[in-house]
From TrEMBL:
<dbReference type="InterPro" id="IPR050881">
    <property type="entry name" value="LL-DAP_aminotransferase"/>
</dbReference>
<comment type="pathway">
    <text>Amino-acid biosynthesis; L-lysine biosynthesis via DAP pathway; LL-2,6-diaminopimelate from (S)-tetrahydrodipicolinate (aminotransferase route): step 1/1.</text>
</comment>
<keyword id="KW-0808">Transferase</keyword>
<feature type="domain" description="Aminotransferase class I/classII large">
    <location>
        <begin position="34"/>
        <end position="385"/>
    </location>
</feature>
<dbReference type="InterPro" id="IPR019881">
    <property type="entry name" value="DAP-NH2Trfase_DapL_Desulfo"/>
</dbReference>
<dbReference type="GO" id="GO:0030170">
    <property type="term" value="F:pyridoxal phosphate binding"/>
</dbReference>
<dbReference type="InterPro" id="IPR015422">
    <property type="entry name" value="PyrdxlP-dep_Trfase_small"/>
</dbReference>
<dbReference type="GO" id="GO:0009089">
    <property type="term" value="P:lysine biosynthetic process via diaminopimelate"/>
</dbReference>
<dbReference type="GO" id="GO:0010285">
    <property type="term" value="F:L,L-diaminopimelate aminotransferase activity"/>
</dbReference>
<comment type="similarity">
    <text>Belongs to the class-I pyridoxal-phosphate-dependent aminotransferase family.</text>
</comment>
<dbReference type="InterPro" id="IPR004838">
    <property type="entry name" value="NHTrfase_class1_PyrdxlP-BS"/>
</dbReference>
<dbReference type="InterPro" id="IPR004839">
    <property type="entry name" value="Aminotransferase_I/II_large"/>
</dbReference>
<keyword id="KW-0032">Aminotransferase</keyword>
<dbReference type="InterPro" id="IPR019942">
    <property type="entry name" value="DapL/ALD1"/>
</dbReference>
<dbReference type="Pfam" id="PF00155">
    <property type="entry name" value="Aminotran_1_2"/>
</dbReference>
<protein>
    <recommendedName>
        <fullName>Aminotransferase</fullName>
        <ecNumber>2.6.1.-</ecNumber>
    </recommendedName>
</protein>
<dbReference type="InterPro" id="IPR015421">
    <property type="entry name" value="PyrdxlP-dep_Trfase_major"/>
</dbReference>
Length: 388
């Protein structure tokens, strides 16, 4: 069979991190090992019944069986705006400042096509969700990594970027609560970031998918739009995936600056046809009635976090206690690489964790644990790691 040559921009990509983890998992499983996957941020708890019932009722309506609107049902966009108002005190115009997404990954991946020209620079706080640099590259842009380390509290040093680099920068990507480190951004950092973006005319992309996975109600993660002036320069990506255990449903939203939301919408009109309306109506149910469920999920992740962090520390591993997200970020033992350690753990114990370098060079020397199994399996995974 003819083997066609991939386009250069695709040929040079490393394997997609989470697809590669699936592949390794399948390989070890085929050797008969009992796999415990802490490798991907995919909630193990089911989507709440009331959301499934809303989908069911909505799927029965024939008017929902045709093409949806490109920007999303107005009822979904209004539910997003109301949710932002209730949760963050932020006003959004559902007609112009909200667009539905087939999961936030889709929106993040398409955004650079709307705003990055070949040769433009994207500043990427890293370790990072792998899609930011990949999508930047697809648009012909270049990435400049801003390292997030324990020494800078996992906040990028905005002053380390030169004036010339700020001049060239078209976009800056930040992600708080942060995947993979679990760090959150204090208000002062966001204020400085918004000011810098406004002063330099840089688009500020905030990936906020994990704002609802917090562990201290007194320190709820912020939306970038809680900072005055942010709407001048920012777009925020959010998702129902993690908050309501809906990763498989593919539903999210982008909100904020009208020209940024509309620019993304223009790409989307040309490449996709929106989200099944029954999924959007289920999304409305989630956003309007889901808070008690989200609170119960937070309690479960907190219990897992408080079980895992001390156990890992007892093994001599240096792990952060995350303020938010369901990820633990730990250093690999001295003398090992991220990939070497993760592969040793997988091959010897069947426990899947994620190599830190998969999130960019500043992640080398770390690994990530996703708290995505119940207490008993988590204890089992921890005792297997301890036995190494
Ligand atoms: C992760 O494990 O980092 C996430 O689940 C990936 C994603 O949300 O696409």
């Amino acid at each position: 069979m003819t083997q066609f040559r991939l386009a250069d921009r695709v040929a040079k990509l490393p394997p997609y991190l989470f697809a590669e983890i699936d592949r390794l998992k399948a390989e070890v499983k085929s050797q008969g090992m009992d796999i415990i996957s802490l490798g991907i941020g995919d909630p193990d708890l089911p989507t709440p019944d009331f959301i499934i019932e809303a989908l069911h009722a909505s799927a029965k309506k024939p008017e929902n069986h045709q093409y949806p609107s490109y920007t999303g049902l107005l009822s979904f966009r209004k539910a997003v705006a109301d949710w932002y108002k209730t949760r963050f005190g932020v006003d959004l115009d559902p007609d112009n400042e909200v667009v539905s997404l087939i999961g936030s990954k889709e929106g993040i991946a398409h955004f650079p096509l709307a705003f990055i020209d070949p040769g433009d620079l994207a500043l990427i706080a890293s370790p990072n969700y792998p899609v930011y640099p990949v999508a930047t590259g697809f648009a012909g842009g270049e990435s400049l990594i801003l390292p997030l380390t324990p020494d800078n509290d996992f906040l990028p040093d905005l002053d380390a970027v030169s004036d010339a680099q700020w001049d060239r920068a078209k976009v800056i990507f930040v992600n708080y609560p942060n995947n993979p480190t679990g760090a959150t951004a204090p208000r002062e950092f966001y204020e400085k970031l918004v000011k810098k973006a406004r002063d330099t005319g840089t688009i500020l992309v905030s990936d906020a998918a994990y704002t609802e996975m917090y562990f201290d109600a007194a320190k709820k993660p912020l939306s970038i739009f809680e900072i005055p002036g942010a709407k001048d320069v920012a777009i925020e990506f959010h998702s129902l995936s993690k908050t309501y255990n809906m990763t498989g449903w593919r539903i999210g939203m982008a909100v904020g600056n009208e020209s940024l939301v509309k620019g993304l919408g223009k790409i989307k009109e040309n490449v996709d046809s929106g989200i099944f309306q029954a999924v959007q109506e289920a999304g409305v149910a989630a956003l309007t009635q889901g808070e008690p469920y989200a609170a119960s999920f937070r309690a479960i992740y907190k219990e897992r976090r408080d079980l895992a962090v001390p156990a890992l520390r007892k093994m001599g591993l240096d792990c952060r206690t995350p303020d938010a997200s369901f990820y633990l970020w730990c250093r690999v033992p001295a003398g090992e690489t991220s990939a070497g350690f993760v592969s040793r753990v997988l091959k010897n114990t069947g426990v899947v964790v994620t190599p830190g370098n998969g999130f960019g060079a500043p992640g080398e020397g770390f690994f990530r644990i996703a708290l995505t199994v119940g207490k008993q399996r988590l204890e089992e995974a921890l005792s297997r790691i301890a036995s190494l």
